[in-house]
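Re: [ENG-882] Designed sequences occasionally contain unexpected residues at chain ends

Forwarding the minimal case from QA. Structure tokens:
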């Protein structure tokens, strides 16, 4: 099937152009992977932003470095710096904005190759951040360059932002860009976030997140006479028992109609991230009843659940425990609230990129939703841009693994998809000279 609005000859020219610059693209991607932009704590962000920004400038973008001024994360030791490039077309709208994050998670154990060596072997590129998601950054930047080198000019505006801290919530990255007007409905029509999507899938959104901390309070006493005290750990154990034996079974019956992948994540869930209390594990112990205990919880909720319901059932559990035992004292703290987002599968962005995927792969893409969250939450909730999806190279289940890799073929094919999508969304005209 031909991508709607583009002749077969134009499609072929664009695909050939991507293939022609593919070696250059992969070489540049290798150099990007070699910059260890590890989060936490946020190492080498300036080096990463500068490396990307120099390529954007070389390719004709008006380039801006945007520090997350005023954010607690933005420190002299670990500055948070994003980079954004813009190429104006013959008209300001429509505008297509590509976004990718260049922070990567810590390496972890179990690697058999250098995590920042960018080893290329048997059609795979290895390294921390290849799939998640530096390959997506390379694909989107070189996709637009391939259009220009094929001798075409886009009518609308193209933007590329590369941001920090996605792995820790994106608040100094895409959230900051949206809050300060770099991304927003008054200037941005379409956003493609280049997260790994297994190359022939389009991700429409994600579930909601409620991270919260519960702290129970007791009364200290001598450990040989615990009846004189009140154990905060015992109270926390009661709440944890309720979470495990009452709340978890109830959540396992709630299933979303949204096509979350993998299918096991179509159910509501709760996970205990951390438990603490009493005296430190290391060091000298003294015989004391613990007067404080706490736990941090990760509740994933569905589009069919309201946040008021989600938070309310936690409060109800705690209040019921307090009603049964007047000594049960607690406080609860909201740590992070992310509402579900889901882009209309019939909108122009989704149907256009689906046509492009079909052109390259010969089949319609599977439309999915993410079990976790990514920066679409900020684009939609803060920037109010309705047409936002995730699409990019990389194997989703490679994210954060040891020996993380991305298939070279996927990088090239996704760049073709992005280039055809950009031409269809923004319109293009052939110009007299090629780059």
């Amino acid at each position: 099937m031909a991508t709607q609005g583009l002749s077969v000859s134009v499609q072929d020219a664009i695909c050939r152009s991507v293939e022609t610059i593919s070696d250059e693209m992969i070489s540049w991607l290798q150099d990007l992977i070699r910059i260890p932009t590890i989060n936490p704590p946020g190492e080498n962000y300036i080096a990463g932003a500068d490396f990307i920004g120099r390529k954007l400038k070389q390719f004709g973008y008006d380039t801006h470095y945007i520090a997350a001024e005023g954010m607690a994360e933005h420190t002299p030791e670990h500055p948070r710096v994003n980079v954004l490039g813009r190429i104006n077309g013959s008209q300001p709208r429509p505008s297509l904005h590509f976004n990718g994050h260049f922070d990567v998670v810590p390496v972890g154990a179990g690697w058999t190759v250098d995590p920042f060596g960018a080893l290329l072997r048997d059609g795979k590129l290895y390294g921390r951040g290849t799939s998640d998601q530096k390959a997506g950054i390379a694909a989107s930047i070189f996709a637009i360059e391939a259009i220009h080198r094929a001798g075409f000019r886009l009518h609308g505006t193209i933007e590329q932002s590369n941001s920090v801290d996605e792995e820790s919530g994106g608040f100094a990255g895409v959230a900051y860009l949206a809050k300060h007007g770099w991304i927003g409905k008054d200037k941005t029509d379409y956003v493609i976030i280049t997260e790994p999507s297994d190359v022939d899938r389009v991700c429409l959104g994600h579930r909601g997140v409620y991270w919260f901390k519960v702290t129970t309070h007791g009364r200290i006493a001598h450990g040989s006479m615990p009846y004189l005290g009140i154990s905060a750990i015992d109270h926390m154990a009661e709440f944890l028992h309720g979470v495990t034996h009452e709340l978890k079974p109830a959540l396992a019956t709630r299933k979303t109609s949204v096509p979350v992948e993998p299918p096991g994540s179509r159910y509501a869930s709760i996970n205990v991230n951390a438990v603490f209390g009493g005296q430190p594990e290391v060091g000298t112990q003294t015989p004391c009843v613990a007067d404080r205990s706490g736990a941090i919880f990760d509740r994933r909720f569905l589009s069919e659940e309201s946040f008021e319901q989600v938070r309310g059932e936690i409060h109800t559990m705690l209040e019921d425990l307090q009603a049964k035992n007047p000594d049960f004292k607690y406080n609860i703290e909201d740590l992070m609230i992310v509402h579900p987002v889901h882009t209309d599968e019939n909108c122009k962005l989704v149907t256009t990129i689906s046509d492009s995927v079909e052109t390259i792969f010969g089949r319609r893409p599977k439309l999915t939703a993410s079990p976790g969250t990514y920066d679409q939450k900020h684009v939609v909730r803060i920037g109010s841009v309705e047409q936002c999806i995730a699409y990019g190279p990389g194997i989703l289940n490679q994210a954060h693994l040891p020996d993380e890799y991305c298939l070279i073929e996927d990088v090239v094919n996704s760049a073709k998809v992005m280039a055809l999508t950009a031409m269809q969304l923004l319109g293009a005209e052939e110009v007299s000279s090629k780059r």
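QA comment: On inspection the terminal residues look reasonable. Residues 130-149 form the longest helix (20 residues). Proposing we downgrade this to a documentation issue.
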